[in-house]
């Protein structure tokens, strides 16, 4: 029987390989703002956050996601905070799921205002957002179709349940190609904008010089 003492009221639990040694550790979040990491029965790490820890989820090797009672969600990588964001709403559930089939799980969070967010685990950038008809009760990944492929499940407080299949790999590649093309277009538009501003400035200078003659 495994047992240990966390030190305060436990509010979140997760299993993840946070040190990259190939073995899982136990992550414990508590009401006293601490995230403790246990290897077997030994506490090997303890981090104090700004508010009570209400959500934890393993993401990928060395990484785990967390949420706080003040509306903060973020990711730790090798014991150091990679990023965090804060909202006026509260995260009710958090998990990791590779929704775009790029081989890297995204951070999925369900919020008190019904918002479902998909964020990059490396940067925290919002990749997708949708609203449920009520507060989100839970988000989870499971093979509920029994076809060997996990899907993302989102449950609302009013009983609404939505399922999201991972994008097909070619669709994911197409989406990334479209994003890259859009970024290139934006760079070109900014370059053209700067050229036009410089041309306008030259015309104004010529006009001012002519009016002073």
UniProtKB/TrEMBL annotation:
Alphabetic keyword roster: Coiled coil
GO CC aspect terms: BBSome; ciliary basal body; membrane; motile cilium
Coiled-coil boundaries: 172-213
One Pfam short name: BBS2_Mid
Ciliary BBSome complex subunit 2 middle region domain boundaries: 12-119
Domain of life, per lineage: Eukaryota
GO biological process, one term: non-motile cilium assembly
Protein's name according to its UniProt entry: Ciliary BBSome complex subunit 2 middle region domain-containing protein
Annotated organism of origin: Tetraselmis chuii
